Batch of 4 targets.
Target 1
Amino acid sequence: MRVFLTIFILLVSLSANATHWLTYYVYYETEYIQGPWSRFDILETSEYKYLDVLKYEDLFGSDATDLTNKMLSRLWEKNNTVYDWDYDLILQGDSVIIVPKEEIKEFETVKNEIVATFTSNGYKTVIFRFTDQEKAFTINDLSLPYFDLTTRQKENEKAITTTTSTDITENTQPNENHGNENILLIVGLIVSCIINIGFIVFLIMKKKK
């Protein structure tokens, strides 16, 4: 019975992790078909391709690599043939180091999408570390036009604010179950603490007998 209670408490305690909801953006390459464009010359040189952006919101734990791996998985969902390669991921300050384990066939597309995605979510540099060389890229190294994310300025500055003109069609609304899931996490943590305290009291009473 004591062994069973110990194992049960350990399992409950391990499942009580710090989690939080986070909004992030993922860029992907697409083709511009119609409509006005203020940087027409760049579109011509890019064969009318540009980087579009989608907004996502997911639940993450305390591990910093959760977000970066999730963003890469989102890119894989958009185009799994381009991202059909294994990698190791290293976070170093404001840089992300990607170590591909095999050849990246459409490297220019991958580079543009990953660099735009990671730099729009707080990182400054993306480094691809190959077996024979290392390449570092920033937002200035993108070879395609992209929709730039803007933030609303303070009203007292009387600044005209703009937002990206793309339609964000996937996952734009916050999950309605956020509150319920947060409550469940808190309840789980409280239950875990109560069980631990009860187990300690049980052991103390057992020793006194």
Target 2
Amino acid sequence: MTSSLSVSDFKTLMAVCEVRYENAYLIYDRTGLICNDLRTLFTGLTVVIAAPNQTTLQADEGSFALELAQCRFGSQKPDSQLETFATHGKRFFDSVLYNLDIKAFSRVGLRVFFRKEYQSLDEAKAAFASLKLVNVTPTVRFGAASEPHEVGLRWQGSQIGTTLRLTAESGTIDVHLPPELQPEKPDIHKSISGLLLDIDYYTVAPVERSQWDAFAWITHSIKTMKKGADSLFGN
């Protein structure tokens, strides 16, 4: 089996953008203002957790976390180019950064999960092996399987860092329907085998708020992540 994989062959499963900063003590006074802003910007907004140091909210567009030293926006159904995701993220981050008067970030990160499904775990392992990311002679090691099917890599410079993990995996989705639907349709049990690609792209050097735009950074970052992964895959 020859390698012909590209990130474009994977489905985008989840994306999370996180911004870290020094303790923003205005969180104790202005969380309500931020929640009110988000209520006007997103649909179906509900508060999941409300505590002095941490507030978690959920909307149709995704989930939001506001903490003393960081905030996050995540979506379990992001668009592949993350343009819609970036639009929603910008609205959230702009509100938080303005209301908490944050001037600089110690870290900005974008983590994206991708998956490509195969008919079986053996097919997923064969696809993994074809990429030749692990230069180890197949043999039984540590009393386990004859060859590895997961690899983790990290690159870090003075400005930007990236971690990448690729795993051949299998799992089962179990959906238990409510009693009123069971006569028409039984419970759903679906086995999934495939490759899971997890990329975390982040800043290393401090970032001034005045130099950062969430939409531009997210959309540029996803392109960089895909280009880097494709290069690793031999494309």
Target 3
Amino acid sequence: MRHLPILLFVFCSALYSQNYQFDKLITYEVSLNEIQSTHQKVINSKNSNYNLFLTGNLAELFDSRSLVKHFFEITYLENHISLKYVRSCNESENFKKANEEKWDYRVEKINDNEFLLGKYKSQKAKNPLFLSKIKIEESTVEGLNDLHPIEKEFRNLLNSHLDKDKIYSITEVGFYSNGKIERNLKLIQTAYYELDLSLPEQLNYDCLNNIP
């Protein structure tokens, strides 16, 4: 895939409303069904409520507060990229049921660098409905949400296993289903990138299209 240039500038020709700011570029490997692919996303290291995912010539901005996805076309120029807004999709209904569920969150320490994160139907449940394994390492910059966002319930439990005087990053996340790994994310590189992105004043809501 094409990697972003060192300097990032975004140009759009529209009246703007909501603005998003980013400061870190994450490059990571995704393993799915024994197939590996490289992906990138841009994040705000101090605000994990939104992420901008980059795939080829398409970009997808997801805002977990509004539960809306925004889609853009990417044009790669000599020393910057241009993002052209295409459409938005409100996915609040898809998340409504999940948010109403009451889960029992559990964190199990495997060793100093590996932990199991499980979501159970109740405190009596023996088998998790969702299970992931994370690998962490000490870091100079906090990065527990860089590779994949961690729910606050997991974060609170995980903190009890970590040294409060140290800083950590997650370097790998494996997602399991029926005891077998289904998908794995592995951190390749992080880099500082300054990016400001604004949405047009009038949004085009269209969830039927699978591509922008």
Target 4
Amino acid sequence: MNDKFEHKFAIKRILKETDSGYHQAIRIYNETTPVEIKTNTNEIVHWLNKEGHFKTMVFVLYFDEEVIGFSMIGYVLAKK
């Protein structure tokens, strides 16, 4: 008898909105994030493609090869 449970967690960085998993993850984001704090998905795509002093990074979260979430972070590249 095997008493061991195994699961695979993964995170994948999204570089463009056509990357696999993005649309599933953004659907989860839209369904679970309260409207008061939700960023418009068109703005997310805009910041994903924008270059400048502010960098946005978008990730898809996986559990056992299934998309389970969305994550987005941003940081300032340079400051004065």
